[in-house]
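$ ./design --mode recover --in tokens.txt
reading tokens...
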């Protein structure tokens, strides 16, 4: 049974040897392989952090103590902290990738110890002063817990119901009031980042950072644990504050600007989180394939069954779509910060949506095994349930679409001068640090919709000698026609921003627009040889299946998809399950 030793920072100093300077992608693959090896084969019944142990912990509603220790020993807290603050995070695009091994196994642990601290800390790192940034970095680096108290939204989820209020008192202190029943890590957090209502207007919010253990006990009441439908190991609970005094230095940024300040940080959060959840979906697809391989599909096996072949190939294509869009959005936060707010919101909206829908379709492959209550077959339904819970379902969709909708009228005119850098699609290219000042620009551009037009001019030559060239050119023509249609409809949207949110044409248009950006990201990754040389990715077959699915989703007529295209993707999935290798763009080696 594998139990890692305590690891030092030196264990992860890739490139410290001057004679060994691998590129960024090679280092990322090596780091994922290191994490995978440290976690061991998830399908082994004797692995204390394997799927059997995770399912047992989920049934009991608890977190895995060994899993938490493994998270610490593998140096994962440093992955959440930027390099300039003493951590190892050298780009938002790498964070999603290195978190996937934990999301593959234990989404509850990964969400509580990985994503939630990243969410809260990013708000502080991009908006706080030097003292606040340093304090947050120290807590995260030593594995301390961070809680996030979300603001209330009209489309409430359990984490977005209720909110705190804050006001300045005559003594120069802040007074915090109110209760929230669901705050992740509420009872264990060393720091809480809270979005608090600080005025009479609907957008009057401020951001506070404080240590709940440092407030006077008479002004704080711990509320019971809040049980969630999915990710049952989440340690969510409630807190109630009554005229609780907080020092003025608890304020992050400027008073009353909480909405604008949070929008500065959300692009990085919205890009990284969908990338993390691809690990969760990887396990679900792998579980379905294991069931399919044990089923009697006749002499030609899984590939010979049209329904199973289509479901497996389609789900894999959707994971690649999600990875392309997540990669592009994450890199845009560094390379095109003034144009990343919309594409990041699109990513947070559309990736969980298409992956979730695909997994529901894949459930047919599971058959009766879908209803398993124990054993490895039970992991598929658990992952599906967890995905719905941690992505907040319709509330997340409504919030993200409300970010996209106000920018739709700006799409009416194409920008002939728009240039999309190739580095946007290439993980091996290094990135500059996040720039909070530039991220506050909120330009509303996306750098991607216009890219389809440029790609259409390049694609015929790029497809010379490749299979499915005619199909791909036809699909891209359909996507360009859809882009033109979206621009025409966007031009007819009128009214101010608030009016757009109530225009019944805005939200359906935002979904079609989101699917077009996903298609553009896929084309960009293929044309620019994203994630390096790879025999499978270099073929355009995966791109044909991906664009076919996206064009069909927007409601356009699509040419028939050749059977051999789906068969090629299905064969690739089966090969990666046998190897084993990850079911994403990066094709990292897995422990099992």
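writing sequence...
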């Amino acid at each position: 049974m594998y139990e890692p030793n305590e690891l030092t920072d030196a264990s992860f100093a890739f490139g410290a040897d001057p004679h060994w300077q691998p590129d960024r992608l090679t280092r990322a693959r090596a780091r994922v392989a290191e994490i995978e090896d440290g976690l061991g084969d998830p399908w082994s019944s004797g692995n204390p952090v394997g799927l059997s142990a995770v399912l047992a912990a989920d049934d009991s509603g608890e977190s895995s103590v060994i899993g938490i220790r493994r998270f610490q020993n593998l140096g994962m807290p440093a992955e959440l902290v930027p390099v300039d603050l003493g951590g190892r995070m050298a780009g938002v695009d790498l964070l999603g990738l290195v978190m996937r091994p934990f999301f593959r196994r234990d989404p509850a642990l990964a969400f509580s110890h990985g994503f939630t601290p990243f969410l809260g800390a990013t708000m502080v790192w991009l908006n706080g002063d030097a003292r606040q940034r340093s304090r947050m970095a120290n807590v995260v680096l030593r594995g301390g817990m961070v809680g996030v108290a979300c603001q209330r939204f009209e489309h409430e989820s359990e984490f977005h119901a209720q909110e705190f209020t804050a006001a300045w008192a005559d003594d120069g202190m802040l007074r915090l009031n109110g209760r929230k029943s669901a705050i992740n890590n509420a009872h264990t957090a060393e720091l809480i980042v809270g979005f608090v209502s600080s005025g009479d207007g609907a957008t009057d919010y401020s951001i506070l950072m404080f240590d709940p253990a440092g407030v006077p006990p008479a002004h704080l009441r711990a509320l019971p644990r809040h049980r969630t439908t999915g990710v049952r190991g989440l340690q969510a609970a409630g807190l109630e504050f009554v005229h609780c005094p907080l020092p003025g230095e608890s304020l992050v940024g400027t008073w009353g600007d909480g909405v604008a300040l949070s929008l500065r940080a959300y692009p990085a959060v919205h890009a990284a989180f969908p990338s993390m959840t691809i690990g969760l979906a990887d396990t679900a697809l792998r579980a379905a394939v294991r069931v399919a391989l044990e089923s009697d599909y006749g002499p030609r096996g899984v590939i010979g069954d049209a329904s199973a072949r289509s479901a497996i190939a389609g789900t894999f294509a959707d994971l690649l779509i999600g990875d392309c869009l997540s990669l592009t959005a994450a890199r845009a936060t560094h390379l095109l910060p003034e144009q990343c707010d919309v594409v990041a919101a699109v990513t947070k909206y559309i990736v969980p949506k298409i992956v979730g829908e695909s997994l529901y379709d894949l459930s047919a492959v599971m058959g009766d095994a879908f209803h398993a209550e124990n054993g490895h077959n039970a992991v598929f339904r658990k992952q599906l349930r967890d995905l719905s819970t941690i992505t907040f379902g319709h509330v997340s969709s409504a919030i993200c679409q409300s970010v996209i909708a106000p920018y739709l009228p700006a799409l009416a005119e194409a920008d002939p001068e728009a240039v999309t850098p190739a580095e946007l699609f290439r993980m091996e290219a290094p990135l500059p640090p996040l720039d909070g000042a530039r991220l506050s620009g909120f330009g509303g551009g996306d750098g991607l919709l216009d890219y389809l037009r440029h790609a259409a001019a390049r694609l015929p030559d790029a497809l010379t000698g490749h299979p499915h060239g005619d199909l791909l050119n036809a699909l891209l023509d359909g996507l360009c026609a859809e882009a033109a249609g979206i621009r025409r409809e966007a031009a007819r949207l009128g009214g101010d921003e608030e009016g757009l949110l109530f225009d019944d044409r805005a939200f359906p248009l935002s979904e079609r627009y989101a699917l077009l950006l996903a298609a553009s990201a896929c084309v960009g990754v293929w044309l620019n040889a994203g994630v390096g040389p790879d025999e499978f990715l270099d073929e355009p077959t995966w791109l044909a299946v991906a664009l076919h699915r996206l064009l069909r989703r927007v409601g356009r007529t699509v040419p028939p998809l050749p059977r051999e295209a789906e068969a090629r993707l299905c064969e690739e999935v089966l090969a990666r399950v046998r190897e084993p290798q990850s079911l994403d763009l990066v094709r990292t080696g897995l422990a099992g």
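exit 0
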